């Protein structure tokens, strides 16, 4: 009796490729479930807007100066005292991008100590135009 040579069976790579392709198609379809915007909709363009701070915000300049409504302010206490009573719970700060972070954190802490329940930092959202 002869020993039969055992042949190794090859793995079916075509089946594996098919499964991967089907998963790819599934994820492509699943990721587009959100309805697209109406084609007739025109979005608001903000590229021509003036970059002014909102009127009831404290502006922190790069050199540490403070301003409120275009006027110089000596301290966070002076700014908080000048706010209308209905606007003292939420305070907004518009910092210059070159302003030191430590100065901004200390300013926010001072405003919280004055009685502000929330201190919001207003920033510009960087959107790339295409």
Automatic annotation (TrEMBL):
Bilayer-crossing regions: 12-34
Record flagged with keyword Transmembrane: yes
Cellular location(s): Cell membrane
Membrane topology: Single-pass membrane protein; Single-pass type II membrane protein
One Pfam family recorded for the sequence: ExbD
Statement: the UniProt record of this protein carries the keyword tRNA-binding: no
Swiss-Prot/TrEMBL keywords: Cell membrane, Membrane, Protein transport, Transmembrane, Transmembrane helix, Transport
InterPro entries named in the record: ExbD
Main localization category: membrane
Membership in a protein family: Belongs to the ExbD/TolR family.
Name of protein: Biopolymer transporter ExbD
